[in-house]
Amino acid sequence: MDSKLLLAPLIGLVSGILSGLLGIGGGIIMVPAFIFLLHKDAKVAVASSLGIIIPTAIVGVLRHHQNNYVDWRLVGSVVALAMVGGYYGAWLAQKLSSRAIEICFGLLMIAVGIKMLWPKAV
Prior knowledge:
This protein has 122 residues and is mainly α. It has five helices and no strands. The radius of gyration is 16 Å and the shape is globular.
């Protein structure tokens, strides 16, 4: 087994905890970890993250549902078009270079970080 893959379970644990706690994990934790720690191509990192986040999201949402924290009306109003967007986002990822995906990801992280730190700035 590749020694770098020994990091994979730890990446899974950290992203799972952050996913359940903050609703993040797939893209924010796993994609950079897969690229920088496991040296995966950006396209492989994104696609693998999506496959991992499905079961993570299921167990997280079930646990939050037990505490009545899930707004099912909100979920219902977003899910259909989010699925369409996911399909076309994956299509677009095939068209872009891995470097372009990394740049888009980095810019998104910067924009979200600024908005979180300075809510009135953006």
